[in-house]
Amino acid sequence: MISTDFGFGDFVYLMQGAWLTIKLAFAAIAIGTVAGIILGFFRATLPRLSMPVAWVLDVFRSVPLLIQFVLFNALKSIAGLSISAFMVGCLVLGVYAAAYCTEIVRSGVLSVQPNLRKASRSLGLSYWQDVRYIVLPLATRVAFPAWQNLFLGLIKDTSLVMWIGIMELLRVSQSIVNRIQEPLLVLCIVGLIYYVISWAVASLGTQLEKRWQEND
User: Fold this and answer.
1) Model pTM score
2) Which residues fall within 8 angstroms of residue 120, CB to CB, at 6 or more apart?
3) What's the farthest any 2 CA atoms get from each other in the chain?
4) Gap between the Cα atoms of 193 and 187, Å rounded
5) 93: number of Cβ within 10 Å
6) What is the pLDDT at residue 216?
7) Start-to-end Cα distance in the chain
8) Which residue has the higher pLDDT, 119 or 12?
9) Res. 114 pLDDT band, cuts 50 70 90
10) What is the rounded average pLDDT for all residues in the chain?
11) What is the mean pLDDT of residues 42-70?
12) Distance (Å, rounded) from C-alpha 187 to C-alpha 198?
């Protein structure tokens, strides 16, 4: 007979960590998406002028995320800023997401055929009407799969915030493992929770893409 010290209280503790993981991922993708849309349009429409922005974003894409967490947390302490570890996690993940989302948006905007934009302008649409009714809908469909993959990646990358003291899902699982000494069971449950969260996000994305196809 198999026995375990893992109880209902431990599961509740894991779910609390999972909820923090979800909040971190959604906050990061929100920050990254808003900044990515603005910077992506800037990169697509003014490529030469936006080169300094591209160099800065390359740094955030190139430096490992764990190093960014440690450096941002250290700079917070050096500067004497009263920012919580959760806010540091949101900002670092958000900037990291923005660095990738910028290129996702840029590629989506550049995928819109110039002839379509010329045709819309010839029909009397203003620049912003062209962006709203022509560029954004077409670019969104092209960029959405890559954006969704970025979101799914962020859900897993939230596990790195454990290094700055945030009790997210993986950090919570470690504390439970240290207490009951059953790593295989606990990590299997944690992996299942990550899978369910990712499956829910992927399913919503699939439903959205199907709705777009039905509206074509």
Assistant:
1) 0.89
2) 129, 130, 133, 134
3) 77
4) 10
5) 25
6) 61
7) 57
8) 12
9) confident
10) 89
11) 91
12) 16
- Output the CA–CA distances (angstroms, integers) from residue 135 to 1, 36, 99, in the order listed: 62, 15, 21
Tokens of 69: 């967490």
pLDDT surpassing 50 at residue 198: yes
User: Which residue matches tokens 């469909």?
Assistant: 141
Tell me which amino acid residue 145 is.
P
H, E, C per residue of the chain: CCCCCCCHHHHHHHHHHHHHHHHHHHHHHHHHHHHHHHHHHHHHHCCCCCHHHHHHHHHHHHCCHHHHHHHHHHHHHHHCCCCCHHHHHHHHHHHHHHHHHHHHHHHHHHCCCHHHHHHHHHCCCCHHHHHHHHHHHHHHHHHHHHHHHHHHHHHHHHHHHHHHCCCCHHHHHHHHHHHHCCHHHHHHHHHHHHHHHHHHHHHHHHHHHHHHHHHC
